Amino acid sequence: MENKDILRIIDHTMLKAEASEADIIRICDEAKQYHVATVFTHGYYTPLVRRCLEGSDVRVGVTAGFPFGAQPTKVKAFEAKTSILDGADEVDMVLNIGAVKSGKYDTAYMDMAKVREACGPNRILKVILETCLLTDDEIVRSCELAVKAGLDFVKTSTGLSYGGATVEHVKLMKSVVGDRVKVKAAGGIRTVEQCRLMIEAGAERIGTSSLMKIAEEIMQEN
Q1: Is 32 a catalytic residue?
Q2: Highest CATH level, class, for 3-221
């Protein structure tokens, strides 16, 4: 993949609690400038993001159950459906991490399946595993559940826990899902080199709040 093509698979992200409307408008302008994949914000800002991106090739992304994944399933599903009605094209939900850590894989599966149902077939749904909190076996089992529930992506991290994306975890996730589900790497990715390593490991989408830094690196190389 050419460096300039990396920009096309970036989810430009602003999930800080203190993000203002001006911050959201700015990242939408940045996203349109570099033709990234999506802009990701919290649901409150979805209508604003939709307006800002109207007529562009950038998609609207939103979180559900963020950042801990501990909300009741019906709350996650309602959050996802509400954001879709407000204009979201893609939803990144957080895994029910507590259920997985408790060995309640049926609960974790139903959580994903119900949000999948709420999103409908025409919206992209990703599940954030928060890999830094899981064992390798729990990552494998969670990826298998995501495939079974009909999700489109498995994603490494929220970026708000003890660690972010690692090459090892991306490789592991890709080895489980193969071509059935895509992998998104997110959390602590701030350079072109990091993007490249994640892509080589199997990631097909990159989540980052460092778009402008990465874009500057690419422009300098060209």
Answers
A1: no
A2: alpha beta
